[in-house]
Amino acid sequence: MMSSMINIMVRFTLLLMLSLSAIAYEGAASFLKRGMSARALGLGGAYSALASDPSSIYWNPAGVANANGLLFQISDLKDTQFYTNFSDVNYPQVALTYSPERKFFTTVNIGFGFGFNGFFVNGIEHYDEQSNYLGELSYSEIAYFFSSAIAVDNIQIGISYKFLQQDFGLAQRQSDLSENKKGTDIGIKYTPVQFLTLAITIMDRLEVGEFEYTPRTVTSGFAVNFKRISFTSDYSTTDVSFARVRSGLEYRLGKDMQYSLRLGVRDIPIKDGNEKLADIIELNSKISIGFGYDLRLGDNEHGIIFDIGMQQEMAPSILSPFSRIIATTITVR
After folding, report:
1. Bigger pLDDT: 180 or 305?
2. What domain count does the chain have?
């Protein structure tokens, strides 16, 4: 009897921690709100206008047309709060883009991209009603992105089709939750002058249940780029009635500017018109830092880029008092 009660308490605690995390990010597919790539994380997620690497499939598909050849990127995110509660949690991210180095009709270029953003929890112990050990459960969510873009002169337009796949191991959900797990994102980039880029991205609502979704988000942003410094900022609104600002600063130094230092702020609240707890948690302001190193191989067209970024909440909340995201990314061009 005692072991059965302990087993119930353990399972209840596990479900509670999962549900609290889900509330903080509005349910399933919450991992998508962390974004992709360490560079973007170090810039506070203000990446809609700067996106030109493979993570463009997530931030702004218009940036896929900037690939200039074949680019491959792999990232890994660590959430220190999750690692406190679970022993085996992974956020793998893989993306690749291709854009011909030679333009069509001298002013037209196209690009294609593919990638996935994943969330995996392993090692969840599973028991029957008599407290007999049955093995380990696993849970995973993977979002796949298929992107394409076209650039004409100084205007780029891109689209990403995204699909969400969920696997609850032995604890399968109802079959009706398999519907509405897809969406379409649209992005535009416009460069009126060489040092200024304007961008807008519309991220589609991704529903995985009646109360589980990522909201539809409209982001407008700009980036000011000079030889050694870039400043970028995004303004986002969602269909759950709140707005936020993200900003980032990048400074490049060293020979051929191979080193990059980054600082950013994320989710600075502008308007909150919804009293749901999820919205309040989402609006917690965050600060981020990052570092990058560009290792050139042979000519300057090929190389490996190493990036690391960290994000920390400015004012920790009750539900996530120790939330800290650390990301590492390798990009091969």
Report:
1. 305
2. 1
Segment 87-103 mean pLDDT: 84
Q: Is the pLDDT of residue 209 over 90?
A: no
Residue whose pair of structure tokens reads 């995390």 in the numeric block: 21
What stretches of the chain adopt beta strand conformation (E)?
A: 69-79, 88-99, 108-127, 133-152, 155-167, 182-193, 196-203, 206-207, 213-214, 217-225, 229-238, 242-253, 259-272, 286-296, 303-313, 324-332
| Residue of 200, 133, 128, 122 whose CA lies nearest to 168 | 122
Determine the pLDDT at residue 19: 36
Q: Are 270 and 282 in contact (CB under 8 A)?
A: no
Per DSSP, 102 falls in state S
Residue-level pLDDT at 70? 93
Residue 320's domain comprises: 2-332
What per-residue confidence (pLDDT) applies to 332?
94
Q: CA 247, CA 236: separation in Å to the nearest integer?
A: 11
Candidates 53, 240, 30, 309; CA nearest to 143 is: 30
CATH of the domain at 173: 2.40.160
pLDDT above 60: residue 102:
yes
| Structure tokens that stand for 306 in this block | 């190493």
Question: Rounded to 5 degrees, what are φ and ψ at 72?
Answer: -130, 140
